[in-house]
Amino acid sequence: MTEQDMTRQVPQPSAELNALDRLVGTWRVTGGAEGTVTYSWMEGGYFLVQNVDLEQFGEAVTGTELIGNLRPFGEERSTDVVSRFYDNQGNTLDYVYDLVGDTLTIWGGAKGSPAYFRGTFSADDSVLDGGWIYPGGGGYPSTMTRIAR
């Protein structure tokens, strides 16, 4: 390891990731899925963690999602804010988070996917109201109401 490698600055979390701070807290979820989700920062601030406890389509869904910018060993960090969700049913689902103004889009898979969530934050960030859209016209409404910060 060279002296330059040892003094290299670690990049700060991206502005796009930091903008998701408005999600931090516990939320009551209603619509096509019902229950609670909690967002918190992992130590260091490089990843937002979502813990999920929902009932969807008559089944209990619990899981954890890690949200951040990818930075593979030896590479620059990605520009997109991506995530991987792990649940109690063995699923691993990938998403891309995109917050523009008060509108949050969570793309299922790659950015621009036909499967996505789109919702709008209320003026006081206490409600995120929107819905999941699936290819072929499917989907369901989803509203998150903040319970605690």
Number of strands: 10
Question: N- to C-terminal separation?
Answer: 43 Å
Mean pLDDT: 93
Number of helices: 2
Q: What composes the largest sheet? A: 10 strands, antiparallel, barrel
**What letter string, H or E per element, gives the SSE order?**
HHEEEEEEEEEE
* Silhouette: globular
Low-confidence segments, given as residue ranges, are: none
Strand content: over 45%
Please state the structural category.
mainly beta
Strand order of the largest sheet: 1-2-3-4-5-6-7-8-9-10
The helix content, as a percent range, equals: under 10%
CA radius of gyration is 16 Å
Characterization of this structure:
- This protein is mainly beta and 149 residues long.
- Helices cover 6% and strands 56% of the residues.
- It has a ten-stranded antiparallel beta barrel with strand order 1-2-3-4-5-6-7-8-9-10.
- The model has no long low-confidence stretch (mean pLDDT 93).
Quick summary:
By secondary structure, this protein is mainly beta.
Please give the structural blueprint.
Blueprint: H1 3-7, H2 15-18, E1 25-31, E2 33-41, E3 47-56, E4 59-69, E5 81-87, E6 92-100, E7 103-108, E8 116-121, E9 127-134, E10 138-148
Antiparallel strand pairs: 1-2, 1-10, 2-3, 3-4, 4-5, 5-6, 6-7, 7-8, 8-9, 9-10
Features:
6% helix; 10-stranded antiparallel beta barrel; mainly beta; single chain; 149 residues
